[in-house]
Structure formats: structure tokens, C-alpha cells
What we know:
Blueprint: H1 7-30, H2 37-50, E1 54-55, E2 68-71, E3 74-76, E4 90-99, E5 102-111, H3 117-135, H4 143-156, E6 160-161, E7 167-169, E8 176-180, E9 197-200, E10 203-205, E11 211-213, E12 220-222, E13 228-230, E14 233-237, E15 242-244
Antiparallel strand pairs: 1-4, 2-4, 3-12, 4-5, 6-10, 7-8, 9-14, 10-13, 11-12, 14-15
Amino acid sequence: MIYIxxxxxxxxxxxxxxxxxxxxxxAEENLRPGMTTGELDKLINAFIVSHGAIPATLGYKGFPASxxxxxxxxxxxxxxxxxxxxxxxxxxxxxxTILDGFFGDTCRTFAVGNIxxxxxxLMETCREAMLLGIQNARAGSKLGDVGHAIQTHAEARGFNVxxxxxxxxxxxxxxxxxxxxxxxxxxxxxxxxxxxTITVEPMxxxxxxxxxxxxxxxxxxxxxxxxxxxFEHTILITDDGAEILSVSS
Length: 249
């Protein structure tokens, strides 16, 4: 279902998205080589719960953790566990908080120690592409405008945008309509409306955009084993553009 949010709902979503961003700040402060992804997830769980919120992923369709932690060739939905984080890794941490019944969703890619020059370019390109997509989101624009901006920037750097996983509406529910592709053609697709809240969350691969899913039913990997990066914000659609809600202050 597509929800047009009321001012009161928007304020609740803003507070939840802010907490999600603060959770990533906390994760970054504690992320270090030698820890496991499971240890990082326990810290994230404790932080969210200590702020009176619930981690939305925990138990969602059977997902067993409070965050998604995806390393290097893992694209998205990585299950935290025994994998040891190493110097040179790209670590994607995706958290969704439920605060007072409303959802805030955000993801960042973190560079652990000394990463390669191409890994850094991939990470920076993904963040830039996300922001370009957000700049093209406003009441009256179409999702094709958002996706085209992301795809064009990524491909100009020699990278590719994942097709199989997309952004989505968020706020009242974890996953709402519309789906938000990170590729597309200008002036095509769903027309955005004022007071919608959606995620823009491109996954950009170093190699081909094809992916595969592990037998655990969750963890998504690049099919060719190359690196992947992701950034995500929850945004509010306004007449003048988009307000990023998943900021820490």
C-alpha cells in the first residue's frame, strides 16, 4: 500500500530515522578488524533497545539478527555471525528501527583499515549516486528520474547497479509501495507525491550487476565475486525536493 503521511506521522518517522542513523554512528565507532559480524550485531541490538526502540529485522520473516551486515562480495541481507572483519574489508551495515511504531531505515558502507583504491572509488561512487538520486526526487518527478541519475553516475565510473533489489516506501510499515528501482529512464515510472516517505538505497557492484542468494535464503552475493557497496537514506518527498530523514541530528 502507498501511504501519504500526515504531519504527525512524518515527525514520528523522522525520529525513528534519526535513531537509525545514530545507530550507524555507533556501529562505525565500534567497528574494528578482528571482531565478528555477530559481535557488531550484538552492539547494534543493545544500542537500539537502550533507546526505547525495536530492531525491525529481528524475526522479520525469520531473519535472525538485529541488522544486516554484508562484507565485500556480499551485496545485501548478510546474516551477522562468525565471519571475522578484516583490514581492507568493505562492510555494509543496514539497520531499521521501530520507534513508537514507526520505521526508519538506513545503510552505510564502511571502509575497514586500508582498502584498495578501487574499493574506495566504488564506495564513494555509490554514496554520490545515492545523493544524485535523492536530488531528483520531489513531488511530481518520476521514479525513472531517480533511477536514471543513479545508473548514469555508476556506469560512468565503470560500475553496475543491482537490478534484483530496490528501495521502497517506508514509515508506517517496514516495506511499503512503491518499489524504487535504482536504474531507469527519465520521465518514466511512478510519479512521486508530496509527503511520501521512501528509501533510496542503491547497491552498486564492481563487476556485473548479477547476484545470487546463498542457501540461507538471505545473503545476496555478487555472482562474479567482485565487491559491492550500498548506501541508503529514508527521505521525505516535498514540493521543493527531498528531505533526508536518516541524519543523526
